[in-house]
Amino acid sequence: MKQSRMLIPTLRKAPSDAEALSHKMMVRAGYIYQVSAGLWAYLPLAQRVIDKIENLIRQEVNKAGGVETTMPGLLPADPWKKTRRFYTYGDNLFRLKDRRKRDMLLGPTHEETYTQIIRDTVKSYKKLPLLLYQIQDKFRDEDRPRYGLLRTKEFIMYDGYSFTIDRAGLDKEYDAQAKAYRAIFDKMGLNYKVIYADSGTIGGTGSQEFSAPAPIGEDTIVYTDGGYAANLEKATSKFTGKQQVAEEQELTKKATPGAHSVDEAAESLGLDASQIVKSMLYMASKDGEDKPEPVMVLMRGNDEVNETKVANEVDADDLRLASDDEIAKLLNGAHAGSLGPVGVGENVTILADNYVKVLVNMAMGANEDGYHYVNANIDRDFRVDKFGDFRNVQEGEIAPDGMPIKFTNGIEIGHIFKLGTLYSQILGAQVLNDQGRATDVVMGCYGIGVSRLLSAVVEQNADENGLVWPTSIAPFDIHVIPVNVKKDEQMSLATSITEELEKAGYDVLIDDRKERAGVKFADSDLIGIPLRVTVGKKASDGIVELKLRRTGETIEVKKEEIVNTVGILLKQAANDEQSKQSSNE
How far apart are CA 444 and CA 418, in angstroms? Predict the structure, then answer.
């Protein structure tokens, strides 16, 4: 492949709005082009990387028994209305109407479609298990697209769906997918963690997330050196609260002018922040209900509310902080920063974190601006409808495996879910079992963010000079650079080497542009092909320089030795990638 025939619009500087390293480098290296906010064009080099990633996925998923299909991206809304996701998916769902005014949507995922197909085509357990998958564009009406390919309105995704007769079959398919995922990400040289995760809008009873640690990652990975790993929404820690023993004091209202935060209230009252109870008012709704229900969450001191845990407790599809108007209406004109449970009516559900349960004589907002109660006690002064774990864990706390918790940022690259009969029950996907009785099909679903994998790989591998692609997914294996294309001996040798390497099975890009050597070398570093072959002053002697992009190691070889040496160096590069991956785990 001649570089003069490729569209590789490299830039010397990154776009001013680019925050993530992957965003900066892929734009600079001419891999992607922004069409609009959240919409990206994959230019030739990116397309070649994507093709290789997709082929890796196909190899491993097919090995696990998967069969590839393609579903429409434009979907009828009726099945989504039956599962209620048309209403509960929120503003992220692209909704539209066709010319006959029928509700349609752009698919962010395809559980309903695949379930319909199985319902209408599979009637006996003898046809199961099945694992159907596709690699396709998905759509999400992202409110704030950012970080290049990490948060977009359109993205490429592998999504697979398993159908079995029972839970044992689901477990087998789920484990097979987890194994395939590991093989895919291992071959890509990615450092990743498998973590416990919440199922979110997909639903189901269990899920695991595959997350690639990276500074720009939007997920917080909670992990220990003992092997525990979960995302922040799902993570738990050992409860260490000790029941306070003290005589209950008289409930007293005190003026706290200007105190709107826990720290301000603690200072005004002369108390430790851990003795202050923070009260947060949320509005919870299910199935797109127009009238959300109020939920007050009580939290110790500066602990943070885990909204996912709260939403799961009250079975809400949507949970949001109450507006100022809603707070004022429900709590007699109070405002955020002075809220508390004393005197709150039965129309508000009150949840309290377990750490609140052990407190005695606590302080909290009095539902009146500029005032707090002190010496408030559970049951005597206010009620709690349910205690539970509703907080975010903190670094240093003890995880379920007995080890101290650590935090790191991560990019979600894959997710697997045990759906059970969630969709098959609603949509009527049943088969006859071995007793001749109709039974709901048991489902799992599995996703890999193909386009965001580019960002994850770049975040973990790029350096100050540009991209550094792993050998398994690099757009080309080798970059041949004749320093001066006007010199016949250099072009002749470069062309001969390129043909010889291609015959040996390598993907080769030859830089046949009439550019200065410095420009060529800078572009080569920027686009990140694993091995560079420089044809320069020693071309007349049949000698070229080989350079590994990752390590910078160089070696001179004769033309006759190049195929053998290239094989050795690329194998070394692959081994270095695996070593890097292992050292980061």
Answer: 5
- Report the candidate in 532, 565, 559, 563 with the shortest Cα–Cα distance to residue 543: 559
Residues in the chain: 585
Read off φ and ψ for residue 83, nearest 5 degrees.
Answer: -85, -5
What lies within 8 Å, CB to CB, of 546 at 6+ separation is 531, 532, 533, 534, 554, 555, 556, 557, 562, 565, 566, 569
The conformational region for residue 436 under phi > 0 = left, psi -120 to 50 = alpha, else beta, is: left
Q: What is the mean pLDDT of each run of 10 residues along the chain (585 residues)?
A: 96 92 97 97 98 98 98 97 92 96 97 98 97 97 94 97 97 96 95 82 71 92 93 94 95 94 93 95 81 95 94 90 93 89 95 97 94 96 97 96 96 95 96 96 97 97 96 98 95 96 97 96 97 96 96 95 95 80 52
Residue 342: partners with Cβ closer than 8 Å, 6 or more residues away:
251, 364, 366, 367, 373, 376, 381, 382
Alpha carbon distances (Å) from 270 to 254, 276, 374, 413, 453 = 12, 11, 11, 47, 51
132 φ, ψ to 5°? -105, 140
Do strands 349-353 and 442-449 pair parallel, antiparallel, or not at all (unpaired)?
unpaired
Q: 410: closest CA among 204, 190, 181?
A: 190
Radius of gyration of the chain (CA): 29
Cα separations in angstroms, 206 against 83, 110, 209: 19, 18, 10
**Per-residue b/e over 203-212, b at no fewer than 16 CB within 10 Å?**
bbebbbbbbb
- Ramachandran angles phi, psi of 299, nearest 5°: -135, 140
Residue type, 62: N
Q: How many CB atoms lie within 10 A of CB 163?
A: 26
Cβ count within 10 A of residue 333: 11
- Cα gap 389→399, rounded to integer Å: 14
Q: Identify how many contiguous H helices and E strands the chain contains and give both numbers.
A: 15, 29
CB 469 within 8 A of CB 577: no
> Which DSSP symbol is given to 323?
P
**SS3 per-residue string spanning 343-376:** CCCCCCEEEEEHHHHCCCCEEEECCCCCEEEEEE
What percent helix, strand, coil does the chain show, rounded to 5? 30, 30, 40
Both tokens of 575, joined, read 């081994």
**Closest C-alpha among 375, 371, 339, 365 to residue 251:** 375
In sequence order, what are the beta bridge partners of 438? Answer: 432
Closest CA to 240 of 407, 404, 374, 406: 404
- Scan for tokens 């006859």, then name that residue: 432
The torsion of the CA quartet 201, 204, 86, 104, rounded to 10 degrees, works out to 100
* Distance, CA of 318 to CA of 292 (rounded, Å): 9
How many Å apart are CA 105 and CA 83, to the nearest integer?
14
Please, are residues 154 and 41 in contact by the beta-carbon 8 Å criterion?
no
Cis preceding linkage at 400, omega within 30: no
**Beta bridge pairs of residue 130:** 163
Q: How far apart are CA 398 and CA 241, in angstroms?
A: 12
Residue bearing tokens 């189901």 = 204
